[in-house]
Amino acid sequence: MPKSKADQAARDWVLKWKPAIDQEFTLNVDGSTKNNSKQVWGGGVICSNSVEWLGGFACRTMPTNIEEIEVKTIRIGIQWAWERAVRDHEVQSDAAEVYKWVKGLTSLSGMVNHGLFSQE
């Protein structure tokens, strides 16, 4: 049975940190939860293309599914970067479903319905 374009893109996606190609900085984020636990955390780091570490952040969020946790962590990370005047950055995440949403390979309607993204 042939794999979908979205499945192939997610499989081809390299799940490791690498410097951004077209931006000056890389914001790398990750969300995490334990099964049957209310412990839900996210965090990230910003590095320059010369691999200079500029800072990191940690956040706690409400327990939902892992994709929503990852998206919330990305949103918090982007806000955190902007507060530090880091605007030329690429966001990297290891969440394959979030990657597919961002690339337009699957619907964002679930995220819009949960208020994580604006419909505008």
UniProtKB/TrEMBL annotation:
InterPro entries: RNase_H-like (IPR053151), RNase_H-like_dom_plant (IPR044730), RNaseH-like_sf (IPR012337), RNaseH_domain (IPR002156), RNaseH_sf (IPR036397). GO terms for molecular function: nucleic acid binding; RNA-DNA hybrid ribonuclease activity. Gene3D superfamilies: Ribonuclease H-like superfamily/Ribonuclease H. It comes from the Eukaryota. Residues 28-107 form the RNase H type-1 domain. This is RNase H type-1 domain-containing protein.
